[in-house]
Specification:
eight-stranded parallel beta barrel, alpha/beta, seven-stranded mixed beta sheet
Amino acid sequence: MAASVPSGRDAPEAVGAGYVLSLDEVGLDDVAAVGGKTASLGELRRLLRGGAVTTPDGFAVTAAAYRDVLTAAGAWPKLESIFKGLDINDVGQVAARGAAARAIVYQATDDARLKAAIVEAWREMGSQGPALRVAVRSSATAEDLPEASFAGQHDSFLHVTGEAGVVEACRRCFASLFTDRAIIYRAQNGFDHLKVALSVAVMRMVDADEGASGVAFTIDTETAFPDVVFITGAWGLGEGIVQGRVAPDEFYVHKPTWRAGYRAVLRRTLGAKESRLVRPRRGAESGVLRERSVPRRDRQRFCITDQDVLELAGAAIAVEDHYSARAGRRMPMDLEWARDGADGRLYILQARPETAASRRPEGVYEVRNLDPGEAPILASGKAVGQGVASGAVRTIATQADLEAFVPGEVLVAETTSPDWLPAMRNAAAIVTDKGGRTCHAAIVARELGIPAVVGTGDATRRLGAGQAVTVSCARGEAGAVYAGHLPFTVERLCTADLPSTRTAIMLNLAQPDTAFQAGGLPAAGVGLARIEFIISELIGVHPMAAAHPDRVASERVRRAIAAWARSDESAKACFVRQLAEGVGTIAAAFYPRPVIVRLSDFKTNEYASLLGGSGFEPVEENPMLGFRGAARYAHPLYADGFALECEALARVRDVMGLTNVRLMVPFCRRVEEGRRVLEALAAHGLRQGPGGVEVYVMCEIPNNVIQIDAFARLFDGFSIGSNDLTQLILGVDRDSTEVAFDFDERDPGVLEMLRQAVAGAKRNGRPIGICGEAPATYPEVAALLARAGIDSISVNPGSFPRTVEAVARAEAETETASS
């Protein structure tokens, strides 16, 4: 095979000319000359110049140099012979031929012209500082493309020093074009081994050893939700995140409200960040990193500030906009970033198209239904994808374990390596002790479309060899490994196939973890977002205990609250932030569609079970009819807790910019009670009126229906709570199993109350919906409400398709009957 000069550039006029280009000389039109990674770096330098986030300077050793020296060494026929008849399913054959190919390239790059060009460029960089350290990174001409990322396939070296060190790192990068993993990846993606060339980027090392680094995506990696920037970060060099050595901090920023001028972090999760990768010890081989433990005080705080997160998000949005404009379509991006510990600045180190989540077909919604029953959870961690898979455990600790791997097994390891790709692509699922959602295991699992649970902490210890397990990522961000082979079903919905309805079909949501996935449904919004579920599952601390931890009697509980709030200035601040982030995540998933957030409606026994809650709650014989809902908000026993709820909701609207949030007051017994709640809301900055917040009331007590005209003068709308309304009309305690047979929303008395509620709201020009499951469970209830002219019906995501179909049929029948 004859060497060729990259298209778009003239052949070198002199021997060695064109071997090196400054990063300022290249851009996206130069992929053939310098590879995808380096071409993107040059593009980023122009795009981000002068901004808060920038890129390091450096130079590229071109693909022309690679081709030229291989031609001079007569390497092409040898390489062609090596890859003739290669069977990529034969691991031993791939390893032997890959080693032979790497040896040929390494020897060929021991070329005087090439080394002289590298040293000259290095010296020009070195003139800018006496102790220059660089990153030497591979950049293939078929890398960082929209259809194939090649992430982790080729080698890179960090903290490289000295002329000899840089030359050696460049030669090793060139040879890494033929790593086993790269050979297999190219074959699977249809790339000719000899037509792909390699360039090398030599760039100033961002000293993140005492700073931080990570990854940013302009799409949610698990659900393909397009309206967020997802950022991960940890102390030290970013290789720790990619290799899965650490569980990083995670941050989300909402793109639409960021574009509207709001600057707020939507959501954050504190990672363990157990260790950091740093520069080699003095005297160690150039580029060889070492791992150092992170002090507890640093593990317990976020590695970057909110301002850092927002600056990174702004840069990521600018990069996505730029690349999308060039491509003529939306182009989600995957970026690497670092914060220099010396100068404190943020740098983008790499940008490439995201190639996994963005490939999912639009308008297709899949739900995997798994009922684990009594099956024990053996391990839990971060979920990658929404898949479910079963198989026998194969723990990988040695090369022998890897060679013994059988297709269909569940691969379990402390972390994974790019060299494991042959086994990983045949795994039913992947489970790791370490890592976050942007580690190597997660990236590969996402690209292969298999479920993974990462960062379990102890899966290699708790899962036995050959043990049958089910790996589930079907329940939001939390992934679990269950004992045994558990059955599950997959529901696939093409949203274009759903009929249209006059009645708005909305969703009931409680878990922020599932919001981005649910946001893909063509729902009219969220008819019921329950604050109490966010408090119980995301926060876990009683609002009054957060407001007054000093009043908690137990020293043990006070310590637990202090530990929970360690990353914030106070327990009160932690509660407000976490509640705002939980509500904000749901609101962002549906923005600008309306999201009706119900103020907390725990019963006293439920509140008492929260951390620190027992000392703040009275003991009641029948909590279902006791101190709940609107009665609590202005009451001295809960007023300070309600103030925290209001502060969080005001933050969602005023700071995060999620003005699609509306509020709803539950279990409001009397008109005067409703007036007091509205006054309390206004006192906490949540005022009705022009530019203010809309406040709905639950219609779930007979008095709400009987006095609906009076309630309509106070509130902006109604939502029927069919569970409590049925309970109180029929006198049936819905928590009592002994009389559960008498609980039936189809009772004529209940149906009449529903009809009257809709009629009363219409009479007063107020919107009214229903947020119970009765319409989804009983099509005849949906039909009655549709005929009565209800404005919206809100159901759980799993009930959405059949509710749409039932309402469409009822509307069609009503139209036929009236014509």
